[in-house]
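Entry 14. Structure prediction run on the chain below.
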Amino acid sequence: MSSSLAKPESVYPATGALSGVEVSQPKRTVLIVEERELVREALRTLLERHDRGEVVAMASDTREAARYAGAHKPSVTLVYPDSPFGMGVDTATHETLMGMIRSIQEAAPETKVVLISEHGNLDEICEAIQAGAYAVIDSREPLEDVLRALEAIFGGSPHMPSGIAYALVRGEREKIDELTPRELEVLTKVAYGHTNAVIASELHISVRTVESHRASIQARLGLDTRAELVRYALDAGLIR
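Output returned:
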């Protein structure tokens, strides 16, 4: 039995006044992914009672989540990582939380995948964030804090409990410790936007040596582009 909750387009779209002109605001739509029906319904009631988005569908497993994400393109997808995802799914990429996140994002690249955790495995959650999860909400927080976090997420600000944020930064710092002092210098300069030629001049080394350092850095950190290097340096606190 499908757990989808598809709703018709609202006949009262959100509007705002600007110089006397009615301006439509983007709809805030939500997909809920949770195995337990009772929890799904409780979440839907909470969101709609407090005006934190329109629930356009609810999924009980990964396969449904990917299908409904593709059909509805929700603004936010709420996921309980503590649930045993993969039940009844025979596709290898759907057997893990990370696989589920990838499936949702492939179906709806713009959706923000938000994990709602009670006592999830910290390492698994950190891996899920690195795989593309946008934010994490601790369901043990006071209701006011949860609602505030949801509002921030809709507004484009990721929310992260302090314990998970610390674990992420600690993990990045451990990776950085594997870099040589010279590689750390190169990474910092790349993150600040310096070209290979400028870095070579500043460090009194050849451009080819800079390129070699960059290749080594990217291999050690598992990064492919300059944008990823910049994001990594920001997350690790190397630059501001």
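Strands lie at 15-18, 21-24, 29-33, 54-59, 76-79, 112-117, 135-138.
Filed with the rest of this week's runs.
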